Amino acid sequence: MTWRALYRDRRLWAVAAVAGAVAIAIGSLTPGDEMPQSLPWDKFNHFAGYAVLALLTGLAGIRAMLAWGMVSAYGVVIEFAQIAVPGRLGADPADMLANALGAALGLVALIMSRRVFPWHG
After folding, report:
1. Higher-confidence position of 119 and 67
2. Rounded CA gap, 115 and 121, in Å?
3. Where are the transmembrane segments (predicted)?
């Protein structure tokens, strides 16, 4: 299989997106006392994680606006799920904003790469 064929295999990207969503859920729903004591740049971690998740979702063939809505909504659901997790605050509007902005950047990066490298799209 060529690199171009791998790039165009939407099933592969869908599996990667689901794996990314699971990784985010595990990291986000781990009790506070089981988390590392020092995780620098909390909002950047949110931003970067959701940027990658949105990028993978877009590569899986989901249109940009729908992918942004899905990934942003997932971030909101995860934030509210954290309320029930011991040692986690949850429902932090700043985290939700970082998630949504990260998702937007991931999709903008995908759209721009498709314009620069048209064979990708």
Report:
1. 67
2. 8
3. 12-30, 50-77, 97-117
